Amino acid sequence: MSEQKKDQKKEQGTQELSELLKVRRNKLADLQAAGKDPFVITKYDGAIHSDVIKDNYDEYADKEVTIAGRLMSKRVMGKASFCHVADKAGTIQSYVQRDQVGEEEYKEFKKYDIGDIVGIKGVVFTTKTGEVSVKATEITLLSKSLQILPEKFHGLTDTDMRYRQRYVDLIMNPEVKDTFVKRSQIISTIRKFLDDQGFIEVETPMLVSNAGGAAARPFVTHSNALDEDFKLRISLELYLKRLIVGGLERVYEIGRVFRNEGVDTRHNPEFTLMELYQAYTDYHGMMDLTERMFRHVAQTVLGTTTIVYQGVTMDLGKPFERITMVDAVKKYAGVDFNEIKTLEEARKIADEKHVEYEDRHKKGDILNLFFEDYVEEHLIQPTFVMDHPIEISPLTKKKPDNPEYVERFEFFMNGWEMANAYSELNDPIDQRERFAAQEEQFAQGDEEANHTDEDFLNALEIGMPPTGGIGYGIDRMCMLMTDSAAIRDVLLFPTMKTQKD
Q: What predicted TM-score, i.e. pTM, was given to this entire model?
């Protein structure tokens, strides 16, 4: 087809759509002129969800019920019609007969459009084909749809449009609604699990003067009232630790954080992070808690501890593997960093193995680069990777027997980092030195380096008990447990580039 014919066909389709939209607005105008404006209706009481009626048919058979929802199909056959109404639980059929609802009401029903919101009162019965239905005695137009839903056979398949118009996506694709219901169940299960462990949920600032606690670039904004620049938080860590200093002992927060970084299948600039901190434990305690929590959430929400993600099976029922970063690099890259003593040796082996590094990178940084290049993709089953180099862990306690490394772990599944945890650094003098090293990194071009937080240092000087802390990527957890291919599939409204007219 020539470009000219394509343009003509597109223009014809636009004109036809414009006419259809005009028809819907004319129908609304007619209703309003007749004093039947659906938008003046403020409530519709007593509706029962479709699944309740279907799952308890014996209880509802031959009894009057009220249903309400969106008109998804309509088949008019003279004096009687069938339609399907969708509510949050699914769809249910209604049989609308002129002699039952009245001639005037039936005439109006025939003018209803797909997408309209309706309320139906009627008697529950089963059709000859065995479908549970409601024989309407009264039907009410509750809201007029002035737009046209995607054609039912193809649905809403354009990925970009699905994310931009999630409300239409939820209407047309029931499995999308199921994903977000499951996401809600995952988060509520986590909350109950932690509450039962004696944790309390708290809220900390989103607007901060110093966006610390993670290696990421922040978004910057300005307060007119205070005439001061602020940043959107990239982490929850530093404020939650202040609460440990204050004696709350076990705290957690589930909230949005913001990182001014790239967008891909596992990253969105705005995402949900959960962090928790527990006094008088260490990173081993965080491993034990994480293993119990993931297993409990999967069993509660999915009914199994086996997760199948994009065809890959992961078993949360078995003990999670625990391996040091040095041993993992030795296993998958064949390089033993216990034998590498100097930065020069680290650079030499990196050159041999084609691991790219920058001049500012130290030996520990290069170990981490080896891990990223050679190890991560192999960590499919639940795995704790422990004992990171101090260079990449500015908020973590050193290992007493090997101060080049820290008491930290990252939790991996499906080759993804799912959580990051420490034995928290509570030595204010050491912490100040680590901040100074981060400031130096920033000066050398590392835009993700932490900055010195004087108030946090003051809190540490007041005194923080030995503490274990961890941060979980809730969105990635939801991806795995709902078999969703991209992070945007588990975010109701992912960050999108503004559409130009």
A: 0.91
